[in-house]
Structures are given as structure tokens and as C-alpha cells.
Design brief:
about 230 residues, alpha/beta, six-stranded parallel sheet, 6 helices, disordered C terminus
């Protein structure tokens, strides 16, 4: 089923966060019926939680044409010597394991509709952020899942990624983070939402990731102490 058609039913996991809520709003403005799910609808740290969030969406929508995985956890700066096992669990559970089990749970509905899974990755997948070791490793695993799942769910389901750079930064860091990018400015969650919308409609795109980062990942000589 093409997303240009009448039925446009979307589940946005992490839909209560800064990026996810903007994605949900943008999809709604384009005529999608959206379930914006947070942890209350299903905790992606557990396989049962991924099953629960998909069941909730199917009960609300009757089917799924688009699933967006924008949920994440474990984004805490720490030097390598201070990282704990709990830090690793927090980073990997939602970002990597949660992405996989969400895809597994949603696959039958997406196969039926010939739908799309869009995974919100991170430029940390491609850069050695030494103060965010578990996060960067988890995001790298998630980026590989985009490609693995694109092959595993083809030809019925397309799987794509969006890798944001500085689009939702902490207060007080705006000038420094903008200066890191070739465009010398910050992005916004709305930029991520536009990329998700494009991928939802791009019928011949799968297994690819769009960088929405102002050129951050493309430049050489990057600082790696983030």
C-alpha cells in the first residue's frame, strides 16, 4: 500500500519526547492518524513492552502503514573509567534491543500494508564520542539494524534511518554546538520530522540513512571529546 493513499496510520515510539513529538505533529499535519506512544504504552526495554505498544497502536488504528522508532535512553556523559553496567543496560535496552523487538512485533502489520519502518539513529553511530561510549556503541548497533532489517523484511517492508546531529541541544550549549557543524547553525526536531516524512513516501528507498546534521558527519578533523 502506498502512503499516498487514503490509509495513513502511524505509530511513533518515543512520541512524547522532543524529537518524537515533533515527528508525530508533522505526520498529523500531513493527514496521518498517529499514535504517539511513550513508556506508558509499552516499555521498549523489554520484548513484552514492544509487543504491548504495537498491540495498543493496532487497537487504536486497525493497522500500521508507518512505524517510527524515536525512543532512546542512556544519553549520559561519563568518562570511560566511570561507566557502569547499568549505563550499558540503559543505552542498549531501548536503542538496540528495543528497536529490534519493535520491528519484530510490527512486522506482520507492516508486511500486510507494505509499510515503512523509520529508525531515528544518531550521528554518534559514526563518530567516536569518548564521553558517551555506551550511547555511541548502542547507536552504531541501531544503525546496523536499519540495514539488517531492510534486508530481512524486504520486499514488503521498507526500513530507513534518520541520523540527527545537534537538533535538540541542552540550554547554554547552542553556540558551541552550532560552531561544530559546517553550516554553522543548529537544526531542529522539525528537520528530523521532514526527513521522516520524506522516507515515509520514498517508495524506492530502503536500507539507507539520511544524515540531518548540518554536515557534521561529513567533515574531517572532528573533535571526539563530545
Amino acid at each position: 500500500m502506498s502512503l499516498q493513499g487514503a490509509h495513513k496510520r502511524a505509530l511513533v515510539c518515543g512520541g512524547t519526547g522532543r524529537v518524537g513529538s515533533e515527528v508525530a505533529a508533522r505526520l498529523t499535519s500531513e493527514g496521518f492518524t498517529v499514535v504517539a506512544a511513550g513508556r506508558a504504552e509499552g516499555d521498549l526495554r523489554r520484548r513484552a513492552g514492544a509487543d504491548a505498544v504495537v498491540r495498543h497502536a493496532l487497537a487504536e488504528l486497525g493497522g500500521l502503514d508507518l512505524v517510527v522508532q524515536a525512543a532512546g535512553d542512556g544519553f549520559v556523559p561519563k568518562p570511560v573509567a566511570a561507566v557502569t553496567e547499568e549505563d550499558w543496560d540503559a543505552a542498549l535496552d531501548v536503542t538496540a534491543k528495543g528497536t529490534f523487538f519493535l520491528a519484530q512485533a510490527a512486522a506482520p502489520a507492516l508486511r500486510e500494508s507494505h509499510g515503512v519502518l523509520v529508525i531515528v539513529e544518531d550521528v554518534a553511530s559514526f563518530q567516536p564520542w569518548r564521553s558517551f561510549a555506551p550511547h555511541a556503541a548502542a547507536k552504531a548497533a541501531q544503525a546496523m539494524l536499519t540495514r539488517v532489517l531492510a534486508l530481512a523484511l524486504a520486499p514488503e517492508v521498507r526500513v530507513c534511518g534518520v541520523a540527527p546531529g545537534p537538533v535538540a541541544v541542552d540550554a547554554g550549549t547552542e553556540e558551541r554546538r552550532a560552531a561544530e557543524t559546517p553550516l554553522q547553525r543548529l537544526g531542529s526536531p522539525g528537520d528530523v520530522a521532514e526527513a521522516v516524512l520524506y522516507l515515509a513516501r520514498a517508495q524506492y528507498v530502503t536500507g539507507s540513512t539520511i544524515h540531518v546534521d548540518g554536515g557534521l558527519a561529513a567533515q574531517s578533523g572532528l573533535r571526539t571529546g563530545a
